[in-house]
UniProtKB/TrEMBL annotation:
Membrane-spanning residues: 36-55, 67-95, 107-129, 141-165
Lineage: Bacteria, Bacillati, Bacillota, Bacilli, Lactobacillales
Organism: Levilactobacillus paucivorans
Protein name: Cell shape-determining protein
One GO CC term, this protein: plasma membrane
Family affiliation: Belongs to the MreD family.
Domain of life: Bacteria
Keyword field contains Transmembrane helix: yes
InterPro entries reported for this sequence: Cell_shape_determining_MreD
Length: 173
């Protein structure tokens, strides 16, 4: 059914838009989002991938492949280190699919799943940065100054964008 639906073209376009919006939000609101010592990172690409898993009912999409492509573009364009998000994004899709088998997807359970996924993305990104010595902050400083504000921002973005994204997915189906 996937190859016959509008999702075949609509999903990659939405993914590209979210990739561009991630960078645009970070650039436009850089003075608010990256105010020392607090760092807030928007993860709209993760939001698009997570909502795709939440909304795929009888149309199975190749989200793993798209997550690898999005991770490669994200790595090359935003981080400069190739290989971090190329593994994190497919892992997020995998973990989300496992959680959806146990939790019925709705607004609140999606919020919980997205909370777990953002924690996973930020935590693994932090560990990868620690391994290659790109960061020297402590774990507690990361939790307070990066993870907390990032979770607050992304959960607010989830609440704001949940219904418009659901409308787009319903229209594409």
């Amino acid at each position: 059914m996937y190859r016959l639906s509008k999702l075949r073209f609509g999903f990659p376009i939405g993914l590209l838009i979210m990739l561009l919006l991630d960078g645009s939000l970070s650039h436009i609101f850089s003075s608010q989002m990256f105010n020392y010592p607090t760092v807030m990172v928007s993860h709209l690409v993760v939001l698009w991938l997570v909502t795709a898993v939440l909304y795929e009912e009888n149309v199975t999409m190749p989200l793993g492949r798209w997550a690898i492509v999005a991770g490669a573009v994200f790595d090359l364009y935003y981080t400069g280190i190739f290989g971090v998000y190329i593994f994190i994004f497919p892992l997020v899709v995998y973990v989300t699919r496992i959680m959806v088998t146990y939790i019925s997807p709705n607004f609140l359970s999606g919020l919980l799943i997205y909370f777990i996924d953002i924690t996973l993305v930020e935590g693994l990104g932090f560990l990868a940065s620690r391994v290659v010595h790109m960061t020297v902050i402590s774990g507690s400083s990361f939790l307070v100054n990066t993870l907390g504000p990032t979770l607050a921002l992304n959960l607010a973005l989830y609440v704001i964008l949940y219904f418009p994204i659901r409308w787009v997915y319903n229209w594409l189906n």
